[in-house]
Amino acid sequence: MTTHRMGEMTTLEIADTVPSQPIVLLPAGAFEQHGPGLPMATDLIRAERVCAQVADLAGGRALIGPSIPVGVSPHHLAFAGTMSLSTTTFAAVVRDYLLSLHRHGFRRVLVVTGHGGNNAALTTVAQDLLVELPDLELAWTPLTTLARTEVAALDPSEVHGHSGEAETAQMLTLAPELVRTDLLEPGTTTLDQFDPVSRVARTHGQPTLTLPYDRLSKNGVLGDPRRVTPEDGEAIVQAIVQRITTFIQDWDTA
Amino acid sequence: MTTHRMGEMTTLEIADTVPSQPIVLLPAGAFEQHGPGLPMATDLIRAERVCAQVADLAGGRALIGPSIPVGVSPHHLAFAGTMSLSTTTFAAVVRDYLLSLHRHGFRRVLVVTGHGGNNAALTTVAQDLLVELPDLELAWTPLTTLARTEVAALDPSEVHGHSGEAETAQMLTLAPELVRTDLLEPGTTTLDQFDPVSRVARTHGQPTLTLPYDRLSKNGVLGDPRRVTPEDGEAIVQAIVQRITTFIQDWDTA
Amino acid sequence: MTTHRMGEMTTLEIADTVPSQPIVLLPAGAFEQHGPGLPMATDLIRAERVCAQVADLAGGRALIGPSIPVGVSPHHLAFAGTMSLSTTTFAAVVRDYLLSLHRHGFRRVLVVTGHGGNNAALTTVAQDLLVELPDLELAWTPLTTLARTEVAALDPSEVHGHSGEAETAQMLTLAPELVRTDLLEPGTTTLDQFDPVSRVARTHGQPTLTLPYDRLSKNGVLGDPRRVTPEDGEAIVQAIVQRITTFIQDWDTA
Amino acid sequence: MTTHRMGEMTTLEIADTVPSQPIVLLPAGAFEQHGPGLPMATDLIRAERVCAQVADLAGGRALIGPSIPVGVSPHHLAFAGTMSLSTTTFAAVVRDYLLSLHRHGFRRVLVVTGHGGNNAALTTVAQDLLVELPDLELAWTPLTTLARTEVAALDPSEVHGHSGEAETAQMLTLAPELVRTDLLEPGTTTLDQFDPVSRVARTHGQPTLTLPYDRLSKNGVLGDPRRVTPEDGEAIVQAIVQRITTFIQDWDTA
Amino acid sequence: MTTHRMGEMTTLEIADTVPSQPIVLLPAGAFEQHGPGLPMATDLIRAERVCAQVADLAGGRALIGPSIPVGVSPHHLAFAGTMSLSTTTFAAVVRDYLLSLHRHGFRRVLVVTGHGGNNAALTTVAQDLLVELPDLELAWTPLTTLARTEVAALDPSEVHGHSGEAETAQMLTLAPELVRTDLLEPGTTTLDQFDPVSRVARTHGQPTLTLPYDRLSKNGVLGDPRRVTPEDGEAIVQAIVQRITTFIQDWDTA
Amino acid sequence: MTTHRMGEMTTLEIADTVPSQPIVLLPAGAFEQHGPGLPMATDLIRAERVCAQVADLAGGRALIGPSIPVGVSPHHLAFAGTMSLSTTTFAAVVRDYLLSLHRHGFRRVLVVTGHGGNNAALTTVAQDLLVELPDLELAWTPLTTLARTEVAALDPSEVHGHSGEAETAQMLTLAPELVRTDLLEPGTTTLDQFDPVSRVARTHGQPTLTLPYDRLSKNGVLGDPRRVTPEDGEAIVQAIVQRITTFIQDWDTA
Asked: Which Pfam families match (chains A, B, C, D, E, F) (predicted)?
């Protein structure tokens, strides 16, 4: 067997890997609205496919554990179909995954989250486990922010983000069969389209003011997803994969 | 789009389905040892693939929501790679899924669990939600026990169950690419192979005495998985799919 | 002192029993409607009196610990007086009882529940304690399902169950002073008396669809409690007591 | 039926009482060491039997709900057989009882605790429910401290309390069949028998320093239980019953 | 540095104190209405300033740890500005403080609460930690009840208590700059001013009936705060400081 | 009264402010090691003093609520005196503060945290409250990262951060009486001083690898605190105060 997916391995095959201490990747997604053109599982799909590419490049030094298909998405609940875990439930899931892995002897885990809404809860898990499992090294990473340069190269709209240029581009290369290109439409693209409070939140950045997405955008989109190509997405994805792979190599040899 | 997978649908497509009140299927698995020949994700794979067949037969009356890849598997934790949620975490995940679906207007959900270890926690969720969401109708089902006749027709070992005849047969038809047929080997197959306490537990049935699987079987298998064919599995799977589909039709027209 | 009730023993007397490792029985009930003729504490009364008979037969190998008078009864809350613990609270109570017993050196506990609504929460406790207290052996049992043959011999109504033939019969022999025989009346006795969804739930069995009892029966009764005698109940009770006693003997000598 | 015990009533009988708003009494005990002469269930027995006398005197204005047999007893866990709920579990049980009663229309509940270790958790429940159930009136009471005058009249030891003069006296009148009079023996009776820290705790009173009972007394007893008679106990019990009954009458007519 | 405030010390200075095992004082307050003349932080201010005087007298044997500014005040939530922790949150805060101190080697902690509403939750923490941290000695104390004699010497109103004579007097000496002497006004001062249920609660004492303060007093005051002087307050404060200091000396030398 | 501190106001004064909807500032700190020269309460002191300056500038549009003196500091627990709340406890405290303020009619709250370890838990609270209190607008802000330009102008060490140049400078202007200038000493100042794993964590930034501070620095310091002056600190503090004040004005007029 040459798979790196633990779900496709047997217990004996996993047992064989423990002594060499591979890094376990856990793909985390969201199940939330992505505007009229992208599917609900967009964030999970991106996380899983990035992990697959990373594991291929890592040459056996990284295994892919089970996914977390639903994340922390209360800000999207006004849009049909969005499903969300409370931050407490999400943290409990991650913690239980980690306790299990730790019990079998794994000591390095990297959670790859396609959804930024999971970042805070991931951090709280990492903080609490410093006390509970001091010999576990836990890292986590978002995707798109690893490719700032490539995203900037798209010259995106003044306002861009969720379901906008960068995210749509990734889907066009990673899962083109799930993109309704004919239904893609711009969402909020300029600051003056926001209501006054949303504008305050977006212009300041910090202090951070958390607002629901139905307040930020009528169709759930920030930016203009029609402006990007699969090639744009490929540049972003490759930057992300490279950054994560380098991190894993550095960590693995530290 | 003709997919029934909510994860592949857009928020607008899901919104369109709500008025007709389709039943939402939630596939739940386990990430646990399945002996030397079956993969860790066996239970999730079976649940997801059965759901796919059911949704196809249901003609739009059933949607498939996000999966729950890791279940309640403390009894398998002695075997490498097994990951388990506590019963509390598992119940919280299911509850959060249901609260989200309910918020969007869905009122009928069927959890399809490939893993019997989830049954109790699913029941506790159903009990607590009778008070909290009285207008939600929540059903759940295991797989193999829906096909008692077909399993009996296999004339299985005196002791059979986890990773044994019935489960292996299902995998041989649903995911043959993941079965290491050459590595399949029998586990505990007769009552006299048990230690005395395990024998008490297995001969009585009730009272129910919960024991870990490393006590019940050296290799994690109950029964002899070498004795079955893909055709055996197909008979079991078709019985399961038919039973669930009939249930959905009856429920839907009630 | 020859009592087997720990509540009537002193701390020194209990200390004396620990080295010989008796099995501790914990009677669990419900505090819920039992139709117009049976009292709220029916399930606790049956559990406690069965435990008393079992302990007498076990000749010192079984002690009776404190009761759990209120169980998991959300499905009966529409009927006046029903009291219910959430599944979480019920599990916490059982867990705290077990942690205390384990601390004193007891390693085998059997929860005897007169109420089927407690089964799932008992299972979740057993699952979680496999990790937390691996050297504790925890068993649990319901009552009536231990006497399937004897119940079938009553030739009960097409629909029967809660407060019906089998349960009333048990009360007629165990606590006749609390049965209002003149007020006993049939509840739902045939499938065609159900509303359509209840009929789906009852005819299928699995998938399991949890419904509240005010939907299943106007007076809270399933079956016809007028058709049974104390002798019917005595046959059921003796079958139950015998099954549990045999289990204890087998366990104790394993 | 003239019983005031809700557990012996039917759902219809309880429904009949709601419009007249009787006060519900909930007896709470402990399952803990009471020295070499008193049984583990001493506190529950006293609470239940006091409630029975109060309900008889209250002429239908008080009903007796289900008991709470195990209380908050971490300070006695060093003595064999003691079982304890965490304060969180105990509070959850009381809260669930109250939510159920409130749902049926009861608005006044009095918890009668035979065990002082439950006092704090009862207070926390009362505090939290001020917000959650503002129209519920919740009272609670211990037993022995209601009879200060009668206890002082016993001229008890310099150090007295748990399993000592006052408690033993109550048991001699309420449950003489469970008192091992021949085994009663004094515990710590004077301040100079304490270790220095225990002496600080006992002489100051406030600040309150919580210590386990195995530090306060070798045999778990404070005081000399041999010095009292059933008549002493009857004086105490009657004072307690009278105080509670008067409270109920005043409350009921307020 | 001669400060006893841990917050003003460095980590190295604190490390130096551990071997000599000083007692750590934790001041706990409330953030709640105190009538028209006293500030919201009254209870915290009194606790902190009493701790400062005690630490000065203790000559290095007592350190002052971080405060708990908000306490358990659900009974005051009808009055603007009152902030309250649930009993569970308050207990979690105290527990986390104690776990941290224990980790560094401190074994004796005294919580000084200016607010009686915290007493019960403090007791529950002390009870639960008997099991979890058996080598920690945890004490707690309220303020005003330590000076019963001095309060009685004020000849207070028939009804007195919250924001009344004793509390106002303390503020007049501890924080006169925060007392609006011109706005002080009497609240409920006699039993006949209560509504009937409040009168039952106040006349009985035990059983304890918990009522919100908007039911007990229109302006949130019990007693007449206009009748006291800074000298009255100084007598009370000195009695409190002396009682706590003596306790600390006795404990420290035990 | 012209104070903006709610703790120094009376309930009536607070009630008067509600109709005009001022923004409530909540200062949050940490109680953790700050190297050999800075006090444990450094983060709280900075947060409180910044809030005071902001409230002065806000001209009544901002009130200061109660502080949170202890934050999320598990990464500093190896250093004596550090106290930490779990992320769950910290979130519960913030949530309870917010529920109380919301109950009184406040709808805009800004948490000002002097400690970056609180950021994630603050975000989780904001996420969960989107569902629970949808009409509450919750913002939070750290301090030092609001003054990136001013910090860069210090030309800090290659490695700098906790207790380093920027933080020490702030304390030199805000609380010089608490800085042991003679004891200030550099900690880790260059990447090559790190152990290999710490170096990976610090050079990558993202993925984020959480490590305890005793691994990052022997004395708990990152950077060289000796290189800064009170004037440096004043520049940083004024930038922070200005940024927050502008945010409040923008929000208030949105």
From this structure: Creatininase (PF02633)
